[in-house]
Amino acid sequence: MSEYTPNYYDFPREFRGYGENPPDIKWPNGAKIAINFVLNYEEGAENSLENGDPASEMYIWEIPYVSHPGKRSYDCESDFEYGSRAGVWRILRLFKKYGYKFTTFAVGKAFELQPDVPAAIMRDGHEIASHCYRWQDFSKYSPEEEKKLIHKNMASLKQTTGSYPKGWYYARLSQHSRRLVYDVHQELNAPLLWMADAYADDLPYWMAVPRTTDAMLMVPYSYDCNDARFHQPTGWSDTDGFLNHIKYAFDTLYTEGQEGTPKMMTVALHARVVAKPGRFQALVKFMEYISAKEGVWVATREEIAEHFKTIIPWNPPAEPLAYGASEP
């Protein structure tokens, strides 16, 4: 077995975190928990022959893992179109009813294809973050190719929303992605408030950027409180399974908040998944459940990040973090 040599793009692993006694993050108004709903908007940016890909999408639709190499898949395309035609509007109506704001993980190409969606999301005051220009596996790209796509999505979202995104989430990222996003934001002089390709905690945390005295704020995402698991073998076969899981997660974290260590919770949504009529009641009932509790702060990732920075600001070290190669 050969020893791994960290490269320019690498970040070191960190196992200790906040340790046995996590901090009191002092959410606004004494909230016991911060909940961030995320709407992943990917429709039209998935793998398809029309997008120049060799096969149709294999993930997160009603008949998953079925690819059609060299042929269009009208069933797959149509299932994704449900999200942009019907699902997203059902979700927007529900959030308007409760007055809650969500964070959008926006794929640039998807926003380009349906400009009514970003317009409505902005109208209702929701946050828009980057989910890359295409919804695909970025491990197949060279660093140079991937960097061009990051620039492309920055320009795309600025065109459709009027500003650069302040937050990022990939999902199928490469080992180069974290550093490339940081570098592009530096080059554009565009603030990078948070990144979400992290699952290591129930609170945001700082991650030092190698060979600098800077850091990126990681606001963890969730693979388990995520409607995508309806389409995964280890997920749910019925709507109540999803509802019970996110309620149990809420109860655990809410109790810890009552005991003096408030946490954050992510609930991840897709317009073509949870907004289907047979699943939608899980989201409705969860909102009913949390709205009846005291001390619940439903917030965007931008709001959570800005608050976190006031409680636990980044303290730059005297020397840059020595890790990895100095050049790509």
What's the SSE blueprint?
Elements: E1 33-41, H1 74-98, E2 103-106, H2 108-113, H3 116-123, E3 127-130, H4 143-161, E4 167-168, H5 177-188, E5 194-195, E6 205-208, E7 215-218, H6 239-258, E8 263-270, H7 277-291, E9 296-298, H8 301-311
Parallel strand pairs: 1-2, 1-8, 1-9, 2-3, 4-5
Antiparallel strand pairs: 6-7
Describe this structure in words.
The chain is of the alpha/beta class and 328 residues long. Helices cover 35% and strands 12% of the residues. It has eight helices and nine strands. The strands form three sheets. Strands 1, 2, 3, 8 and 9 form a five-stranded parallel β-sheet that branches. A two-stranded parallel sheet has the order 4-5. Strand 6 (205-208) and strand 7 (215-218) form a beta hairpin. Helix 4 (143-161) crosses helix 5 and helix 6 runs parallel beside helix 7. The chain is globular, with a radius of gyration of 20 Å. It starts with 32 loop residues before the first strand and ends in a 17-residue tail after the last helix.
Strand content: 5-15%
Number of strands: 9
Q: How many helices in DSSP terms?
A: 8
- The value of Rg in angstroms is 20 Å
Helix content: 25-40%
Helix/strand order, N-terminal first: EHEHHEHEHEEEHEHEH
Most strands sheet: 5 strands, parallel
